[in-house]
Write a structure and sequence with these properties.
Blueprint (H helix, E strand, L loop, with lengths): L2 H22 L18 E3 L16 E5 L2 E6 L4 E9 L4 E5 L5 H7 L7 E3 L4 E8 L19 E5 L9 E9 L15 E4 L5
Parallel strand pairs: 1-2
Antiparallel strand pairs: 2-3, 3-4, 4-5, 5-10, 6-10, 7-8, 7-9
Length: 196
């Protein structure tokens, strides 16, 4: 093959690969300065239009902006969570509960209907609704309790106190502790590489 033709074929191949890369990976976007950078497999609606079949975002990876915050909606939870950060190399998305009650999220979010799973190791905990306040070792979850009822997370093997009703046993990253104040703690999720 003459060198001239080889060079033309080489540059055509480089150009074609560049075009494919750009069409398969839409430009990154964000909701505001300092907000997480949004790129594949996520898509920021409506800022990142789907440019081609290869740029389509799998179901469950759609994000949106609201008041300069990046948010994600989980139909099974019925509410939005704020996206605090995304690490693409480790496939980790950290979320915040805008109501500052991470245990409400643990109790109600069903990740089996999403492409995500908890990043942390999980253990089963039972949520108790009690008509009276319990003493230690029980630790009340203040953001889920009211004036006439008290919510606790306990190891499911513990005997059920007489004043309590077991609400639900779920696999969560940790039981309630007053020392775990950050409402993002435990809301780290990971995902598998989506298949298009």
């Amino acid at each position: 093959m003459p060198p001239f033709i080889f060079l033309i074929l080489f540059w055509f191949s480089v150009f074609q690969n560049s075009v494919h890369f750009l069409s398969a990976n839409p430009p990154a976007s964000s909701c505001s300065n300092g907000a997480p950078r949004i790129s594949y497999p996520f898509r920021l609606n409506p800022q990142q239009p789907q440019q081609s079949k290869s740029c389509e975002v799998p179901s469950g990876f759609e994000l949106f902006c609201e008041k300069n915050l990046t948010k994600i909606y989980f139909p099974s939870y019925g509410d939005d969570l704020v996206v605090k950060s995304i690490s693409y190399p480790t496939k980790r998305i950290n979320l915040l509960d805008p109501r500052n009650c991470v245990h409400h999220v643990f109790l109600n979010l069903d990740l089996s209907l999403t492409p995500f799973r908890y990043f942390y190791v999980l253990k089963d905990y039972t949520y108790l609704n009690c008509s009276t306040s319990l003493s230690r070792p029980f630790m009340e979850v203040p953001c889920m309790s009211g004036s006439d009822f008290h919510v606790y997370t306990v190891d499911p093997s513990l005997p059920l106190p007489a004043s309590c009703v077991a609400v639900k046993t779920v696999a969560v990253p940790f039981e309630y502790s007053p020392y775990l104040a950050d409402n993002s703690l435990g809301l780290g999720l990971t995902w598998d590489s989506p298949l298009l």
